[in-house]
Design brief:
The protein is 79% helix and 0% strand. Among the domains are: 19-95, no CATH class; 115-187. The protein contains 6 helices and no strands. It has 225 residues and is mostly helical.
């Protein structure tokens, strides 16, 4: 290849293919729009664009020459928005794509959680607390509903027993009234029977006494006395 030959490179992106391509296309369009609205001269805009493309391409090429896996990982990470430099560095260290530097391990705990991660953790904790409170509220409502149901059942049982007691009381009063009526009717029947028995006795006595009187009259007629 001739070292003095110029190269014009093109970039192919398919936003529908991956999140990285979509983020890259959006970032490039935003950068181009800002450059055109800057009010710079046309030649200055063209120079800025060439410098931008050269820097980006050479940076990626350098990463590729150092480590193809590192270059690929960094390229795909653009699709995970937002991603800070500290987060990307920690991720590359975990994946062993960057060499360990003495003293970096001591600083790692401070960079282990990014502001975004801390926000997510706080949000998760708040959701957990809210979920716990909701569960307690639901449990309390369920307990209250069970107590209300039990109270209603007890009240219904008390009402049933009260009704049964009233029914038995009315039945006892009715039976007492019937017994009193039977006693009164028994006394009324006993009085005519006794009267009937008395008159019969008198009639029998007179009948029994009748024959001696007739005999005495007959004797008198014969002149015995």
């Amino acid at each position: 290849m001739n070292p003095g030959k110029k190269l014009n490179l093109s970039l192919y992106l398919n936003p529908a293919h991956s999140a990285a391509d979509q983020r890259a296309a959006g970032a490039l369009q935003q950068w181009y729009l800002g450059l055109r609205q800057s009010g710079s001269e046309r030649d200055d805009v063209s120079m800025t664009m060439r410098t931008f493309h050269r820097s980006v391409y050479l940076a990626g090429l350098q990463l590729h020459l150092l480590s193809p896996r590192l270059c690929q990982h960094v390229a795909e990470s653009i699709g995970r928005e937002p991603l800070t430099l500290a987060e990307l560095t920690a991720e590359l260290l975990r994946c062993e794509l960057l060499p360990r530097v003495p003293g970096m391990e001591a600083e790692q705990p401070e960079a282990s959680f990014s502001p975004r991660q801390l926000e997510q953790i706080q949000l998760l904790l708040s959701h957990t607390r809210a979920s716990g409170e909701t569960e307690r509220e639901v449990a309390g409502e369920a307990q209250e509903a069970r107590l209300e149901s039990l109270l209603e059942a007890q009240q219904a049982e008390f009402a049933r027993l009260h009704g049964e007691l009233e029914r038995l009381r009315a039945l006892a009063e009715q039976q007492a009234l019937q017994l009193q009526q039977l006693r009164l009717s028994g006394r009324a029947v006993a009085t005519p029977v006794e009267s009937s028995r008395g008159s019969t006795t008198e009639e029998l006595s007179l009948a029994e006494m009748a024959p001696p009187t007739e005999k005495m009259q007959k004797v008198r007629q014969k002149g015995i006395f």
